[in-house]
Amino acid sequence: MLQRAAAETIRSAKAFRPRNAFFVFEESDLSNDVDKLWELQTVMSQLGEREKLMAVKPENFAAIDEEYRSANDEMTRLSESLEQMAKERRRVDGELSDQQELLKKYQGQLMQVKNQQQYAAAWKEIDAARKHVKELEDSSLKSMAEADEVQKQLDERNAGHGDLKSHYDRAHDEWQSSLGDLRQEAAGLKKQAEAIEAQLPPRLRDEFHKILRQRHNLAVVRVFNESCTACRSRVRPALVQQLKRGELVYCEGCHRILFLEKSQH
Ligand SMILES: [Zn+2]
Q: What pTM was estimated for this model as a whole?
């Protein structure tokens, strides 16, 4: 706030100073509002570049990130299928013990048969129960072998995982530390932009941001060979004179703010 108030004071003092050629050359690099806007746009575009870079994973990290993620996904998949198999095996084992109970019961009944017909019927039950028990035992064995195979794959993955993780961590740290530089640069640029904005009249600052939004992040454009470098419109000599005096001039073609470099004054 203080900075802004100070800038305001300087600006109103300037308003009373005579405008002449000498006055233009006397000014510092950021002598007038147009220079400040040009600088602000430059700083903002540099900030935008840093922000874009920070959002992108570097290629060497992206590769290991992909590998690490897919290894983790695969391990999760293997663990889940192991859990599923264990659940299924508990179900089969439960059914197996039920069938074994049933078989014992039928075998007990066999002792109490009273005739040939009952005997044959009891044997039939026993036979069916035995068959079922055998099937369940086979299924249990088969799923145990399958689970062993999956466990083996998971163990192999686990064994290599430490190396993969440290590779991933190293690449991640490298990326983060490179981002640290970018972050620092971005913070510096942000501060720079804020400092310039604080020196601008609020209405001009708002106008600048409005044009920036509406015209593809280009609000201030250079004049070269008496033409607008954005839309190629000719800048009339009267306007060039105004520019040389440091006045705010809009391009008659694209309505951007025109900027004339000091060397062309
Ligand atoms: Zn233009």
A: 0.51
